[in-house]
Amino acid sequence: MIKKLLIASLALMAVGASIAYVQRSNIALTLVEKVATERMKNPLDGLSDGLHVGLCGTGSPFPDPQRAAPCTLVIAGKDMFLFDAGSAAAKQIANMNFSTGQLKGVFITHLHSDHIDGLGEVLMTRWAQHTEGQRLTVHGPTGVSNVLNGFKMAYEADNGYRTAHHGAATMPPELAGADVNEFTVQKGSTTTVLQQPDLLIEAFAVNHQPINPAVGYRIAYKGRTVVLSGDTTSDEQVKNAARKADLLVHEALSPELVARLQDTAIKNQRSKLAKIFSDIPNYHASPLDVAVLAQEAEVGHVVLSHIVPPLPLPPLKEIFLGKAPDVFQGPFRIGEDGDFISLPAGSKEVIYGRR
Q1: pTM for this entry
Q2: Cα separation of 51 and 70, whole Å?
């Protein structure tokens, strides 16, 4: 009896597999429609009121298959903002199931190429997907206007093609590109960049010499606070801005691992590369630097981003962190592309997830 049931079950499975094989195209199309339907829903509808931070790019100029260039989403209530736009920023935002069409503003920390070279695609896809008739604004320190003018020239022909193809009603030429809010920040002070009911975004100067200006941002919404360091050494201005913040997202470089790369470059007679490796530690912070700063500033949580160098093997993460987690008494972790951190309004909770 059991043998007959087994044979019958196997026969049914074979029939099912045959039907699935014959119908594979229809099944695939159904799945595509289902996935597309999910991705076309408003991703902000399911979020709790509060601050949310999405790490769409935690890498650096180093080639790194696990990390895209600098790109951080911050959602305050129902308003979504982008901080820095490294290469592939638009694709990374889509990979996290968000849409550049919902961006209310872009904030640039400084004009290093790895923080701006994805901006053109962000502007184009935002124009294509935005439906509320509002022109995007790019905020940044002195010099960002020149960057936007450069992208305007580079995309002028492309913008014209898209309006000609889809029509002015779909691709209004007046909404292409972005307006610019260029600001200045004095050392030791903050500049209000954007203020709305319940929301305040301030910029503060950081030490990334010889890159000047370079800024970080403090975002406050309904009692929750997130600080983004931008590229910087361990700096008193970052510590002041991060005082009692719920979350500090800080860049980090491992001097030990970079020194090993420098030694390897010297052994392989790559003198120019060795010189670059010898230079970069002096304008970045180590994980230990960040831990000390965050502990003194009484920060709640720390997430490291702009990771230098790449960490392809798990043991390298332990070397990268070193003694930093022992120095900082709160949660202290290396950020990964796709991390999503929620700070609900009206609480002290910090929720870590993935998108």
Answers
A1: 0.92
A2: 19
